[in-house]
């Protein structure tokens, strides 16, 4: 049974939320060794500056989610790497669920079902669609808390330095090798701020369009301009 999990959190101006995430992670039940690495893509390190806990590894990195997550993975020592967005909370049994999934199957990685932290009914449809899509395609997105065995992560080359779609690309490479991905039915809880900022319909349709274009060969560097 895997006995250690390294949580890699890429951040950019996340000072308002990072301490809450750390408190959440350290409060979860887990009978193994938990390591938390926060990787800041801002040269000023404004997010790292508000982290008081000395046991948290604070890492500065060039900006870019894939680049930052690779930097955290290089410094990590856990058997399992968990890549977690700063605005996403795990379910109560999340760490133990990962440990069980990696012990009870041949899966090299996986992710959770999605929930969005908002009472608006439209988000329930988005949650169901996202969870169903990831179960059918076996390609979860980054906000579903992707986890993977550290050895496998480096064998397939880690994250590519894409400005977006680094999560889809990683899962595609795992699938092409015929490796198994475990989809846990427990749900992570992610912030609704992205949808609230750009509009629920606009954000959802834009994301679907970007994924389709990427799967048909559009380079992430070109797609990035539509993501802003």
Task: Describe the protein in words.
This protein has 228 residues and is α/β, with parallel strands linked by helices. It has one domain (4-227): Spore Coat Polysaccharide Biosynthesis Protein SpsA, Chain A. It has nine helices and eight strands. It has helices spanning 15-27, 65-75, 94-104, 122-137, 150-155, 166-176, 193-198, 200-215, 220-227; strands spanning 4-11, 33-40, 57-60, 80-83, 88-89, 109-117, 146-149, 181-191. An eight-stranded mixed β-sheet has the order 3-2-1-4-7-6-8-5, sandwiched between helices. Helix 1 links the parallel strand 1 and strand 2. Helix 8 packs antiparallel against helix 9 (220-227). The longest helix has 16 residues, at 122-137. It is globular and about 40 Å long. The model has no long low-confidence stretch (mean pLDDT 91).
Keywords:
eight-stranded mixed sheet, Spore Coat Polysaccharide Biosynthesis Protein SpsA, Chain A, alpha/beta, 9 helices, globular, 43% helix, 228 residues
Structural class: alpha/beta
Q: Based on Cα principal axes, name the global outline.
A: globular
Strand content: 15-25%
- Compute the number of strand runs: 8
């Amino acid at each position: 049974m895997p006995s250690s999990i390294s949580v890699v959190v890429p951040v950019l101006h996340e000072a308002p939320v990072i301490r809450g995430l750390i408190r959440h992670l350290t409060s979860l039940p887990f009978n193994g060794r938990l390591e938390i690495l926060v990787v800041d893509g801002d040269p000023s390190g404004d997010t790292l500056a508000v982290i008081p806990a000395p046991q948290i590894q604070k890492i500065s990195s060039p900006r870019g989610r894939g680049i930052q997550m690779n930097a955290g993975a290089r410094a990590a020592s856990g058997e399992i790497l968990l890549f977690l967005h700063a605005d996403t909370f795990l379910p109560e049994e999340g760490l133990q669920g990962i440990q069980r999934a990696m012990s009870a199957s041949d899966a090299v990685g996986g992710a959770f079902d999605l929930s969005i932290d908002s009472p608006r009914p439209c988000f329930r449809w988005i949650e169901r669609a996202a969870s169903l899509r990831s179960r059918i395609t076996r390609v979860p997105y980054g906000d579903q808390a992707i986890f993977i065995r550290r050895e496998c992560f480096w064998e397939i080359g880690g994250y590519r330095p894409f400005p977006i779609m680094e999560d889809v690309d990683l899962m595609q490479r795992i699938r092409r090798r015929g490796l198994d991905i475990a989809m846990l039915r427990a749900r992570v809880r992610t912030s609704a701020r992205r949808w609230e900022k750009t509009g629920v319909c606009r954000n959802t349709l834009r994301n679907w369009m970007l994924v389709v274009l990427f799967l048909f060969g559009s380079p992430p560097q070109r797609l990035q301009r539509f993501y802003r």
